[in-house]
Design a protein that fits this description.
The chain is an alpha+beta fold. The chain has a domain of 111 residues: VC0467-like (3-Layer(aba) Sandwich). It is built from 5 helices and 7 strands. Strands 1, 2, 3, 4, 5, 6 and 7 form a 7-stranded mixed β-sheet that branches. InterPro entries: AlgH-like.
Length: 176
């Protein structure tokens, strides 16, 4: 929402990947990390890059555990999920294993895919409290925004996908 004061989340589009009584976890979708190259990360992890390696975008996923990587990618709608993969809806998943990075370095692996460093996390009831305080606006996912490498207007496009004109939003909360 426009009133978000935390600069890490101002005009952020966040995909909530998990939500339960224990809290919530999400990935910021519109904060690229152009200074962090995928090849550089693979080298740091000791993963050999082959000539036909897939180069995927690296993004700031959130402030929690910024050294931890999460690969967000498409999956088949049906089938089993291996260990380290969290299915998000029917055709989207998040994988945290090194194996997926090796696959990408060899020119295989899911397509499309992006790598997020860190994540956004909320304790039990924290996200709900922030939503009641008009901190977040929720909506159905606009899948085309997830992998789109154009980030400058992603927040506005996410609002428009929900039928919301950003110019009419207020940062003030109230009760009727």
């Amino acid at each position: 929402m426009p009133g978000m004061v935390d600069p890490r989340f101002q005009r952020s589009v966040v995909l909530v990947c998990a939500h339960s009584d224990e809290g919530a976890m999400g990935l910021v979708l519109n904060r690229p990390l152009p200074e962090v190259g995928f090849d550089d990360l693979l080298e740091q992890l000791g993963i050999e890059v082959e000539g036909d390696a897939r180069r995927i975008e690296v993004r700031f996923g959130g402030p929690v555990e910024p050294g931890r990587g999460f690969v967000l990618h498409k999956v088949a709608e049906h089938g089993e999920d291996p260990e380290g993969r969290l299915r998000i809806g029917q055709a989207l998943a998040m994988t945290t294993t090194r194996d997926i990075l090796v696959e990408l370095a060899q020119g295989h692996g899911p397509d499309p895919a992006v790598l997020a460093l860190g994540y956004a996390g909320w304790g039990p009831g924290q996200l709900e409290t922030e939503m009641l305080a008009n901190g977040w606006l929720t909506g159905n996912g606009a899948e085309d925004l997830i992998f789109d490498p154009s980030h400058d207007d992603k927040w506005q496009r996410a609002l428009k996908a929900q039928g919301i004109d950003p110019s009419v939003l207020s940062g003030m909360a109230g009760r009727a």
